[in-house]
Design a protein that fits this description.
Two copies of one chain form a homodimer.
Chain A lengths: L6 H6 L20 H7 L5 H5 L2 H15 L3 E3 L6 H6 L3 E4 L3 E4 L5 H5 L6 H4 L1 H13 L5 E7 L1 H10 L7 H9 L1 H25 L3 E6 L7 H22 L5 E5 L6 H8 L3 E3 L6 H7 L6 E5 L1 H6 L1 H14 L5 E5 L9 H12 L2
Parallel strand pairs in A: 1-4, 4-5, 5-6, 6-7, 7-8, 8-9
Antiparallel strand pairs in A: 2-3
Helix pairs in contact in A: 2-4, 4-8, 8-11, 9-11, 10-11, 11-12, 12-13, 16-17
């Protein structure tokens, strides 16, 4: 299958490599002038995501520039609500806007029926990328986790206190559960279709996992992710899946054991000694440089790279950020980072 | 000293009580109509903080209404930068605005010299509250921790990604360290003066502790807090100090051991079983109901109260929220909460 020549997949299979493979969350993005050139041709952000030649091109740009060990499909976690029938728009410079889903009746207007059909451009994008990617570079597909996608579906936009979604989830766990159920179905189907189109691994982003108390974390983060992993594995038993429950803190170990993900993405705040002892002994880990270090550059960045690489040197580790790259990052600093990670 | 009749202080001394004492972060605030009535008389938020009769009155309002086991001085963490010489204003409905401190030269325009003099109204407020508080209710003084106060001083307002402060701290840890140093000095002095005015315990709020990678957490959260605890204890060896490094997750145990705080405030995301095993065996814990549960009310709230009370029943526990109370909370729900915590 050629997998053995991809260092990223070796590590996901549990191998420890001499130096960690590297990719960066949001590596295809606004910090790159070549991305901005393509972006300016598109009629809005979703048009970029849904136009295979553009989406494939921006996916490949950081691979050409830096030689990362993995490409990640250029898309957005909100294509799933879009495919379920909830209109999604992106306001320039402000972020996503959705007409909020706030009750069971709203949920019943959503449907998983057209997920594969509506997201056909994504699968086409994957095929285009694959045809252009060299043998040693892996392609990662992804989705948001149900909880995180639901925050945007219910709040209608980014939130700080999550009062609307938590209010609904706490008052009416069954009604809210029906939204989670439809997201589990739709997301699992979407991820399966990505595998069928050719991705080598999957990542499930749960950006807002860290805002929930224990029972809600179990019900809305761990359980739905476990159900997605089971559904995907039923179709594709060997596909590696990286779970990224950002901010889960002390709940990371149970999340790992209960969801059955292959590997864990670690956020910036996770202490390395603790993670090496508690998590990396059980599964490969990925992370966790603060993206602001990449912005700050210089000696501080170099010291952090050394600390992270050596802290995770005793087990399988993929170098990454703890959160997405920031658009003000200097592309030259990213080149420094890659060389510091690769060559001691 | 009458301390033995205050259940809140008994727990801070390590006693396990039949039912946990209770107070709520931001219990004096906008959810109470009697607070809004006083607030409307003040010429801005800081005027309210700096007018002893008003600040004392709003501190006492939730004690009268609910009979909480502790009152917390009504004030704001940003009175410290104000006293250090950085102008602080509050924009109605938007939050604080400060002219940002961004380099060593800016730091040198700040001074700890006038902290006690400028914050005299706070100490007067404490005396007024004490004269009105019954023997079984404790009075808590507080400050922000240096890192959290510095986020507002450097960003000039609330932030989402902390790019300005982290950028400075990562590029120039020494220059940024001089700001932390002045905050350690000024905060320790301020807290000592609160003790001298009569508070029974202190809480150090580190709201943004959870956004830092390990070395920065050590340098800007743990170390400065330890230094403040040492300085306060040098003057007042017996004062109980609650540390609240919100979002510290797996770093909570080291924070506890290294800072020497008496007790730990736990945020909403901290799993109770983990905290009971890892933290409560070493120190009293306080927390950690999600404030949105108080907004959602009903059976979900009752179940969470039972879970938290029983989960921490084997050691010293003070019932509280995991974050401040939300202004839309129904005052009647708070009354329900208090009775559910007190009577099984």
């Amino acid at each position: 299958m050629g997998d053995s020549v991809k260092p990223f997949l070796k590590v996901l299979a549990g191998e420890k490599t001499e130096r960690p493979p590297i990719w960066l969350m949001r590596q295809a993005g606004r910090y790159l002038p070549e991305y901005r050139a393509i972006r300016s041709q598109a009629n809005g952000f979703l048009d970029l995501c849904y136009t295979p030649k553009w989406a494939a091109e921006v996916t490949l740009q950081p691979i050409r520039r830096y030689g990362f060990d993995a490409a990640i499909l250029f898309s957005d976690i909100l294509v799933v609500p879009d495919a379920l029938g909830q209109e999604v728009t992106f306001v320039e410079g402000e972020g996503p806007r959705l007409d909020p889903v706030t009750c069971s009746a709203d949920v019943s207007s959503l449907s998983t029926t057209w997920v594969r059909q509506r997201l056909e451009p994504v699968f086409e994008t994957i095929q285009l990328i694959k045809s252009d990617l060299s043998d040693d570079v892996a392609l990662i597909g992804f989705s948001g986790a149900p909880w995180t996608v639901a925050t945007y579906m219910v709040e209608g936009r980014g939130s700080r206190d999550f009062a609307a979604i938590k209010g609904w989830a706490y008052r009416d766990p069954e009604g809210f559960g029906s939204l989670i159920d439809i997201l589990v179905e739709g997301t699992a189907d979407y991820l399966c279709a990505q595998v069928e189109a050719g991705v080598d691994a999957l990542q499930i982003f749960d950006t807002w996992a860290g805002v929930l108390p224990e029972p809600a974390f179990q019900a809305f983060v761990t359980d739905p992710t476990r159900r997605i992993v089971e559904k995907v594995r039923a179709q594709h038993p060997d596909i590696p899946i990286i779970g990224f429950p950002r901010g889960a803190g002390p709940a990371y170990p149970d999340y790992l054991k209960q969801t059955g993900v292959t590997a864990l993405g670690l956020d910036t705040a996770v202490p390395i000694g603790w993670a090496a002892d508690t998590l990396q002994t059980l599964a490969p880990v990925q992370g966790n440089l603060d993206p602001i270090h990449l912005l700050a550059a210089g000696d501080g960045l170099k010291a952090e790279v050394d600390r992270i690489v050596s802290g995770f040197a005793n087990g399988p580790h993929i170098f990454n950020l703890g959160h997405g790259i920031i658009k003000e990052t200097d592309p030259e600093t990213v080149a420094d980072l890659v060389s510091w990670v690769r060559y001691p």
